[in-house]
Design a protein that fits this description.
alpha/beta; chitin binding
Length: 175
């Protein structure tokens, strides 16, 4: 059984002011309403948002404001059109410390149903050294081959306040 969840994704850091307070204040309610219209039109049971990546504490705070607004709109829609139903809200979450250390993890854990940890693409053409694509642990004998690892990321999310039962491990099942 496959549950349809709409994924909204993008590499938003390419737009340098996307996460600014002015842009977010003006648009987070509008974005939430667009999410609801997608839900109505397509029948999705939830929304997964892929914001790669909040660059600083201001953008991380604005991300939480936006997620809370989406949650509020999903709940209001459910109350009116599907009483008792809970629409899923999740994010695609970074596994690299430089990115997840910026996030407000306790708030992420509170507002979301799931955190889909992107536990893949740890190495590639952008890397300075050959490495593993999705290693579970760091390799102390060859740290350049494992600059990221899933174990450290999961532990950091839990320590930061994300309940373990909300963490979903993304895997590289592409060829």
């Amino acid at each position: 059984f496959i549950t349809p969840v709409r994924v909204l994704r993008g590499w938003l850091t390419l737009c340098s002011d996307y996460g600014s307070a002015e842009i977010m204040d003006a648009n987070h309610k509008r974005f939430a309403l667009i999410v609801i219209s997608l839900r109505k039109a397509r029948g999705f049971v939830g929304i997964d948002i892929d914001w790669e990546y909040p660059a600083d504490s201001t953008q991380a705070s604005n991300m939480i404001v936006m997620l809370k607004e989406v949650r509020s709109q999903l709940d209001a829609y459910a109350a009116q059109h599907a009483p008792g139903y809970h629409f899923i809200l999740s994010i695609a979450a970074p596994a690299g410390e430089v990115n997840y250390s910026v996030l407000r993890l306790a708030d992420v854990g509170q507002v979301l149903d799931y955190v889909n940890l992107m536990a893949y693409d740890y190495a590639g053409s952008w890397s300075n050294a050959s490495g593993h694509d999705a290693n579970l642990y760091a390799n102390p004998q060859n740290p350049n081959a494992t600059p990221f690892n899933t174990d450290d990321a999961v532990k950091a999310y839990i320590k930061g306040g994300v309940p373990a039962n909300k963490i979903v491990l993304g895997m590289p099942i592409y060829g």
